Amino acid sequence: MKGRMMVSQLPDHAAFALQRFRELTGKIKHYEEILAVVFWDMRTGAPRKGIGLRSEAYGDLAAESFRLSVSDEMGELLDKLSQHDVLPLLSRVDRRQVEEVRKDYERNRKLPPDLYREYMVLVSQSEAAWEEAKEKSDFPGFLPYLEKIIDYNRRFIEIWGVKETPYDTLLDLYEPDMHVKDLDRLFGELKSRLVPLLEAVQRDGERPDTSFLKGSFDVAAQKAFSLYILKELGYDFEAGRLDESVHPFMTGLNPGDVRITTRYLEDDVLSALFGTIHECGHALYEQNLGEELYGTLLCTGTSLGIHESQSRLWENLVGRSRPFWQRYFPELKKHFPGKFDHVTAEDFYRAVNVAEPSLIRIEADELTYNLHIMIRYEIEKMLFNEGLAARDLPEVWNAKYTEVLGVTPKNDAEGVLQDVHWSGGSFGYFPSYSLGNMYGAQMMAKAREEMPDLDEHIAAGRFASLKEWLTERVYKYGKSLRPAEIILNVTGEPLDSSYLCDYLERKFRDVYRLG
Predict the structure, then answer these.
(1) Is the pTM for the entire model greater than 0.90?
(2) pLDDT beyond 70 at 118
(3) Of 32, 100, 127, 279, which residue is the catalytic one?
(4) Is 135 in the active site?
(5) What mean pLDDT do residues 203-219 have?
């Protein structure tokens, strides 16, 4: 395979170990693809009556993959390949995969396989239960699942070992080497600049007219426009598809099969569109991974933060930009005849960038979005570092929304039940969204520096240059580089929150005509 050392170039004992290691990790990768198909099916319309038995099957497959990853054979192979006289001889990809698999092996080896299987069955059942609970705004009905999931995660933390804090242990699953102390600092920096900006916008700014965004927008037309925009951005439909789900998501089986979903709301022309562009950003990453990674466990994004940097970059820094709407507003008008006859592209650009406190994270504007993430971050820290009980989540959630954003949920569907993440056990995931905003802004600043005519390209609907730039610096590396290495590789410096703050200050002072 391209970029991977031939086994014959190694000493005989190491060559055999490497060949068998590739076979074993390849088999695990195949299990992951099958599990991804099952997951996608359960989230895109699988019959509810089959969820129970399907969850059992999902749990068995996940457990078998898990057993392979922590098997005695895997441990023996890792020991042989990690020897000081062998590891340096491996190709960059093989060496990185050995290091990554060893990290997971040493952590997961501590988990009893039966415990892991029980957990996988629970979370696959839980996501269906969450969908029903959200539909009915029934937190008590979902509570038993959530309590069990939290208990399992607390047990996992004890088994794996507490890092600097219990919550740090969970953070490492999504953003390697990121700690509470780092996030506290980064969020503190954001808050110190973005809260005063929001106050200035609300107090002194000229609020954009958004009246034309209200009304009824044909769902079929929304779907057609979403498909059109996906093709324009470079999403490869021969390597993917667009479906519907309660909560938009991307599932990457391999670079040749990267599926995305969205959610259409008849009274909201923006929700599906920006949700689709967001998931497209994830998909562009997965569809453009380097060929040398194919079939390996490195053939995926390096972290949730870097992954979110791409979804947020394409959704916001491209999709909510003035050049984008200079190009695509006329196309939007064609898809929705009569809806925007008296609206200009500039009017529409300003309207899609209105900034005001709201209840729903996925509908939040760029300026307030990070405050939604900070609330979830604080609550997750309370759950795992302070022992907050699951039954108290609605009360705590509502209080924090009232305090931080000045809005209070009327029910749990628009409050604590709005996100799917906790139903799947994804505690420690939410900070990656804000990390993604920071990574993305820093990357885009570098892209503009190296491509001064980038806005002209966007205004002309030419996205290939940006996609190729990101492919060469981010996408092709997959998990073969760590997050800190990626941002340093792209920008020449570590993660710096000031790029996001500078970008938001420039943009919203302009949108609100603050001078």
Answers:
(1) yes
(2) yes
(3) 279
(4) no
(5) 96
